[in-house]
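INFO batch 0412 | record 1 of 1 | parsing
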Amino acid sequence: MNDKLKPKKATKIVYNCLILFAAILVFIRWMSAFHNDIVVINAEINSHISNFALSLVFYLGVGFTWILQKTFNKIILLGLFIIIANVICETVMSFMNTTDILDAIYGIVGTLIGFCYFLVINKYGLEVIHDES
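INFO prediction complete | emitting C-alpha cells
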C-alpha cells in the first residue's frame, strides 16, 4: 500500500491565515513607501517587515508541498538554508544589498514561525489517505 498525506481542515486554515498575514504586512509596507504616516506597528518594524514576510511565505510555500510528501528532514534543511541565506545576504553581500543585521533577524524570525507551524502540523495536522492500489 502506498499511503499519502493530506492536511486537516485546521491545518489549511492556519496556513492560509499565515500567508494572508504576511501579505497584509507586505501590503502595508508597500503603502508606506507612498505615504510615511502608514506604519505596521512602528517605524523600526516597518522598515524590516518585508524580509520577515518574504522568508515566511517562501518557507511556507515550499515546505507545505514537501510536508505532504513526507519529507520533514528536507523542510528542516530548507529552514536552515533560508536562515543562512538571510545572514549572508545581510552581512557579507554588501555589493547587492545594504548590510543590515536587523533584516536578517526579521528573516530568521519569519523562518522560525514557519518551522513552528511545520513542527506542529507534522505531528497533529496531517491525515493519512490509504491508497488501495
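INFO post-check: The mean pLDDT is 88.
INFO record closed
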